[in-house]
Design goal:
Shape: elongated
Radius of gyration: 21 Å
Largest sheet: none
Distance between the termini: 27 Å
Structural class: mainly alpha
Number of helices: 7
């Protein structure tokens, strides 16, 4: 190896160190796959609840009890999917950080969390306001849009692929505003299918060799 090659290797090492200090690179593709699987399972249950409601509606007409039960079932399903996804994300990220001797909670991960929470909290409050008004029509597209904004906002502190996932979520949510009666299907595609595809791509790029971290952005 000549002197020029040694200098190039040294510059690459410096670049890797700088990227690791400015970006949270311990996100695991497996957490994306797990979140997508949980979302698809939740969508299956939600589809069942909605189908049961309309079957009763055709048999007995509108009853406040059936509608209240439907809302409760959908909210519980969404909460369970969210909790399961967060636990899966924590576990797989914690495991990957440990494999690569990197901290799970540092200045960069704090910045990532803060920048993602701003759109998520704003979106959550907006969704609660719509639910208070019994306005369900735009729930699915709003979920996708605010989630996409959170990913884009936090992408500068982690792997750049997150940005592309966020843009796709936003586009999907906007398209959903033109097909409102198919909200559950758009929700399943955005939180289920896209997460699984993204997770597999990230795993393939960065995690096939546990000891290596691909820091190319």
């Amino acid at each position: 190896m000549n002197v020029q090659d040694q200098h190039l290797d040294a510059l690459r090492d410096i670049q890797r160190i700088m990227q690791r200090s400015s970006r949270f690179i311990s996100l695991s593709g497996l957490s994306g796959i797990a979140a997508g699987v949980w979302a698809l399972i939740g969508a299956i249950f939600a589809h069942k609840w909605i189908g049961d409601y309309y079957t009763k509606y055709e048999d007995r007409g509108f009853t406040g009890y059936d509608f209240h039960q439907l809302k409760l079932n959908l909210l519980l399903t969404a909460a369970i999917v969210l909790i399961a996804s967060l636990l899966s994300a924590f576990y797989f990220t914690w495991r990957r950080a440990g494999q690569n001797n990197l901290p799970l909670w540092d200045h960069t991960s704090k910045q990532l969390a803060i920048n993602m929470l701003i759109p998520l909290v704003a979106g959550g409050l907006f969704l609660l306001a719509m639910l208070q008004q019994n306005e369900w029509t735009f729930i699915a597209p709003a979920c996708l849009i605010f989630y996409g904004l959170a990913l884009v906002n936090g992408s500068k502190y982690t792997l750049s692929d997150i940005r592309y996932l966020g843009i796709l979520e936003i586009i999907l949510g906007l398209v959903n505003t033109q097909f409102l009666h198919y909200g559950l299907y758009f929700w399943a595609i955005g939180f289920g299918v896209l997460h699984i595809i993204y997770g597999f791509v990230m795993w393939w790029k960065n995690e096939r060799k546990p000891s290596a971290i691909n820091t190319q952005q």
